[in-house]
Design a protein that fits this description.
This protein is of the alpha/beta class and 237 residues long. Helix content is 43%, strand content 21%. Strands 3-2-1-4-5-7-6 form a 7-stranded mixed β-sheet, sandwiched between helices. InterPro entries: CmoA (IPR005271), Methyltransf_25 (IPR041698), SAM-dependent_MTases_sf (IPR029063).
């Protein structure tokens, strides 16, 4: 796994999922998202209890494919796995990983607002919605809802804001302390923060749930949270 040192040098552009990021993404996300592996394990175990024969599982913003490959590797049922990401470098790396593990997962490069993924039974979206512009974010969630079969489940991990401004600042400061413990310098942390400004736009948990329910989801639950990182599950009746 190549180590993430992208922000050691001064930034020259806003954050984007290009070849440089794809090359270090696995290290970046494990060192940047608290309890990332444990959360993936929780999601995989939950899905393994729900998956049935001939289901279709879609991962939106599948990045390097780690989630779907791990799920497909441990799933004994005959199901279809599809990963969709708009970064070609991510898709190419995911395809190489799937081939190396001899895992059958279809990774597609495309915009989730344009690609057809209707007929899905489970849709995943890990740290993806936060990168979709707020003006069209609800459209993306509406498409997710409409693309799910009856009884379908949507699992979404997001970075979130706290409603209380004092608490929000403290949690952010604690998170930056965490990143330093993972080996990132203060300079790297600030560089990335600047690069993500107006690119990653988080909502509160309440705003996410309101958006989900306004699109038709009847039941929304939080299944994991560490500070400002949350995993939510929503169900289509």
């Amino acid at each position: 796994m190549k180590r993430d040192n992208i922000f050691v040098k001064p930034i020259e552009k806003h954050f984007e999922f290009d070849e440089q990021v794809a090359a270090v993404f696995d290290d970046m996300i494990e060192r940047s998202v608290p309890f990332y592996r444990q959360n993936i394990e929780l999601i995989v175990n939950l899905l393994l209890r729900r998956i049935k024969k001939e289901m279709h599982i879609v991962d939106l913003g599948s990045s390097t494919g780690s989630m779907l490959i791990e799920l497909a590797r441990r799933c004994s049922e005959d199901v279809t796995f599809t990963g969709i990401d708009n970064a070609s470098a991510m898709v190419e790396l995911a395809q190489k990983k799937a081939k190396a593990f001899d895992i059958k997962v279809d990774f597609i490069c495309g915009d989730i607002l344009k690609v057809d993924f209707s007929g899905a039974d489970i849709i995943l979206s890990n740290y993806t919605l936060q990168f979709i512009r707020p003006i069209v974010r609800k459209d993306a969630v509406q498409k997710i809802y409409d693309s799910l079969n009856s009884g379908g489940m949507f699992i979404c991990s997001e970075k979130v804001l706290m409603q209380n401004s004092w608490l929000n600042k403290q949690i952010i400061d604690i998170y930056y302390d965490y990143k330093q413990q993972q080996g990132y310098s203060k300079s790297e942390i600030m560089q990335k923060r600047e690069a993500l400004e107006n690119v990653l736009i988080p909502y509160t948990i309440e705003e996410n749930f309101l958006m989900f329910k306004s699109c038709g989801f009847k039941s929304c639950e939080t299944i994991f949270q560490w500070g400002n990182f949350v995993t939510m599950a929503a169900f289509k009746s």
